[in-house]
Amino acid sequence: MKKTVLSVLVVLFSFLVNAQDYTDIVRLNISRVNLEDVERTFDTDITNINFELIYPKVLNDKLVLLTGITAENTNLNFSQLAPDENLTMARINVGVKVKHSEKWSGTYVVLPKLASNFEDVGSRDFQFGAIALLDFQYNKMVRAKFGLYSSSENFGTIITPLLGAFYRSPNKKFHFDAVFPIRMEANYLVSNHFSLGMDLRTSVKSYNLVNEDVDFYVQEESIRAAFYASYGLLNDSLLIRAKLGFDTTDYGVYAANDRVGVQVLTFALDGDDRIRLNNEFDSSLFFGLDFIYRFDISEKQ
């Protein structure tokens, strides 16, 4: 199993923790990769589709209600163990963003979800997570972020401390936005509507897997780092990005009752003596497309 600090969460709630001058209302991410196991016994084409929708509603000058949904589907092959599987995650995101003072604000969100191959939906398919993220504004261009994420997963409970920053240059051509270890994005505006950038998305999550009436689960540990070219339409409200990057995602299969307890980042506090039922996946290049509908707060105010 790949053990790296960056392999932490699904990027899946990144749109909820932004502290910049825009909000991504809709995000559709599509990626394609061919991964081979490290023993070189088989390979599989993997298609990942992630859809996120957020609806922020301003209640007053200090409180914003955040509601939304996240849906993700990953199609892959586990060789003889579970051929041609569709791992699906459906999540509801409900929370608030609170302005505590002139400098401090906080985002607090609960994240209940179903994650499995949806062969026989039951209690093992349900997981519950939550995030708390504080934002400190140094000035209009620089912000710092501090927080914590936790979620119940099939392998146990994961706890992830968060640390991030946001920077936008005075000419607004360059921006850097990160919440480590979940995500990072750096972007430079080359010309009107066209920009170049790089991003990092990581996740650690699980899916209940029922195959021929036998219960397993899949633990996904993902790092996807990519360079992209982006073009803006409709006054840059709609962004289309073509991506080329490196995918280190691993999908470990375990028996349903084989657990590790509490895990901080990717490290099990009581050790990990589980028996893995499939080979580890190797890394490879991936191709992707992003479609983003963005609401620019700075231009609407």
Summarize the structure.
The protein has 301 residues and is mainly beta.
Strand order within the widest sheet? 1-2-3-4-5-6-7-8-9-10-11-12-13-17
Proportion of residues in extended strands: over 45%
Number of strands: 17
Number of helices in the DSSP assignment: 1
Spell the H/E element sequence.
EEEEEEEEEEEEEEEEEH
What's the architecture, going by CATH? Beta Barrel
In round numbers, the mean pLDDT is: 87
Shape: globular
| Cα radius of gyration in angstroms | 19 Å
> Which sheet architecture does the biggest sheet show?
14 strands, antiparallel, barrel
Class from helix and strand fractions: mainly beta
| Weakly predicted, low-confidence segments | 1-20
Tell me the domain tally.
Answer: 1
**First-to-last CA distance:** 48 Å
Q: What is the percent of helical residues?
A: under 10%
Report on this model:
β12 and β13 form a beta hairpin. This protein has one helix at 297-300; strands at residues 22-36, 43-60, 63-76, 85-99, 104-116, 126-137, 142-153, 156-168, 174-180, 183-191, 194-211, 214-233, 238-247, 250-255, 261-264, 267-268, 284-296. The chain has a single domain (11-300), classed as Beta Barrel (Porin), CATH 2.40.160. With 301 residues, it is mostly beta strands. 1% of the residues lie in helices and 67% in strands. The N and C termini lie far apart (48 Å). The longest helix is centred in the C-terminal third of the chain and has 4 residues, at 297-300. It has a 14-stranded antiparallel barrel with strand order 1-2-3-4-5-6-7-8-9-10-11-12-13-17. It is globular, with a radius of gyration of 19 Å.
